[in-house]
Amino acid sequence: MEKDFTRTRRVEDYAEALGYSARTLSRATLAAAGLGAKEFIDRRVVLEAKRLLAHSDRTAARIAGHLGFFSATHFSKYFHQRTGQTPIAFRDTVRRHAAK
């Protein structure tokens, strides 16, 4: 996953690379991490997005491109759905707390 999470977020792609079905991969991640494969992948992508937003000066659009999103808008929606904040709001919050 570490090698490909910036390229794809599809469970089927990871399952194929490992020689398993998507269902088998989801069962394995559920047993090992308590999460389905899609949630596991999404959490890794969000973690990297948060890291880049907090510790770099890259624009949200550049981060979106780095993480394999076709548009900054799609990235912003994806991030907001999973965190409850826009990428820029997250960055502002993190930096405000760090400045204190």
Give an overview of the whole structure.
The mean pLDDT is 94. It is built from 6 helices and no strands. The chain has one domain: Homeodomain-like (Arc Repressor Mutant, subunit A). It is mostly helical and 100 residues long.
Short characterization:
By secondary structure, the protein is mostly helical. Helix content is 71%, strand content 0%.
How many domain regions? 1
User: Strand-residue fraction?
Assistant: under 5%
Shape verdict: elongated
Helix/strand/pairing category: mainly alpha
For the residues shown, what is the average pLDDT?
94
* N-C termini distance: 35 Å
CATH class, named: Mainly Alpha
Could you say what the CATH topology is called? Arc Repressor Mutant, subunit A
Q: Quickly count the helices.
A: 6
Helical coverage, percent range: over 70%
Please state the CA-atom Rg, rounded to the nearest Å.
Answer: 15 Å
- List segments where confidence is low: pLDDT < 50 over at least 5 consecutive residues: none
Task: Examine the secondary-structure arrangement and name the CATH architecture.
Answer: Orthogonal Bundle
Q: How would you name the CATH homologous superfamily?
A: Homeodomain-like
Largest sheet: none
Reading the helices and strands in chain order gives HHHHHH
Number of strands: 0
